[in-house]
Design a protein that fits this description.
The chain is α/β, with parallel strands linked by helices. The protein has helices at 31-38, 51-54, 77-90, 108-117, 130-137, 169-175, 188-197, 224-233, and strands at 15-20, 42-45, 62-65, 93-98, 121-125, 151-155, 178-182, 205-210, 218-223, 240-244. Helix 2 links the parallel strand 2 (42-45) and strand 3 (62-65). It binds S-adenosylmethionine (SAM). S-adenosylmethionine is lined by residues 23-24, 48, 98-101, 104-106, 129-131, 134, 182-183, 209, 211-214, 238-241.
């Protein structure tokens, strides 16, 4: 239930739109997101949001960057929540722009719940997630009738303080045809070992896509057994999406919108 506004004369707060910015290619922005950006009074945005989208907002729009700056920690979530409520008290249309989709590893659910608890109207605008778009821009379908009828979106970066069990990689090796891993670069060796211990063949094809959908996209392809080492050799860095499963071998290079710069063959 929403909390009441403070005082009988309080101005009704504006609406906060939790908007997905898409994976990086500005052309993958939704029409609704474009419309809201072009007409917002305040904008709160993260690091992975492309400059072209920031250029869409009106010159009068109040902007707040809440992402991670070089050498600094990211803005804590409670601070972002407070900023959103404060902006909604002063503006009619506040856009909270997030990379990819706001409800997929984007903490959009937490922000939505907080806003509602403070009596602020909130609306989510889904975006194209990196976990589908980055593989697509490398020509990799995340499901395929012959190679994968299930796919799991999973984080490779787990916070210790979550107070619940971590990802069951061995269980996923047995239960999901394909895995799309976000934020997995730093745990790649452990993930690989767990998946193989869980029964995934060492020859399973794997792909890592850095900077998917944008200029400078890079791709590493390898069998799972030596995947972590190949990714390290290529010095891939964040942001990157990892795809593991037979779907990787169904890659149709010709359909990829941008050419891959780094490529290593899959031993089939
Ligand atoms: C905090 S999560 C946000 C995911 C986002 N909400 C989405 O739906 O795409 C950030 C992670 O998404 C992945 N990511 C985001 N943009 C990417 C891109 N352009 N290319 C590859 N991976 C990307 C990376 O794994 C990155 O570490």
């Amino acid at each position: 239930m929403s909390a009441p506004m403070e005082g009988p004369d309080a101005t009704p707060p504006g609406t906060v739109y939790l908007v997905g910015a898409g994976p990086g290619d500005p052309e993958l922005l939704t029409v609704r997101a474009h419309r809201l950006l072009s007409d917002c009074d305040a904008l709160v945005y993260d690091s992975l949001v492309p400059q072209e989208l920031l250029d869409l907002v009106p010159p009068t729009c109040e902007r707040r960057f809440v992402g991670k700056r070089r050498g600094h920690h990211s803005v804590p979530q409670p601070t972002i929540n407070t900023v959103l409520v404060e902006l909604a008290r002063r503006h009619r249309r506040v856009v909270r722009l997030k990379g990819g989709d706001p409800f997929l590893f984007g903490r959009g659910g937490e922000e939505a719940a907080h806003l509602v608890s403070r009596g602020v109207a909130v609306e989510v605008v889904p975006g194209v997630t990196a976990g589908i778009a980055a593989p697509a821009y490398a020509g990799i379908p995340v499901t395929h009738r012959r190679a994968g009828s299930s796919v799991t979106f999973v984080t490779g970066h787990e916070e210790i303080d979550k107070g619940r069990p971590g990802v069951d990689w061995q269980g996923l090796a047995r239960s999901s045809d394909g895995l799309v891993i976000y934020m997995g670069l730093h745990n790649l060796r452990r993930i690989r070992d767990e998946l193989i211990d869980g029964g995934l063949p060492p020859s399973t094809p794997a792909a890592a896509i850095q900077q998917g959908t944008v200029q400078g996209q890079r791709l590493v392809l390898s069998a799972l057994a030596e995947f972590a080492e190949k990714v390290e050799e290529a010095a891939l860095s964040s942001p990157a999406i990892i795809v593991i499963g037979a779907v990787v071998a169904q890659r149709v290079e010709a359909c990829a919108p941008s050419p891959a710069a780094v490529e290593m063959p899959i031993p089939l």
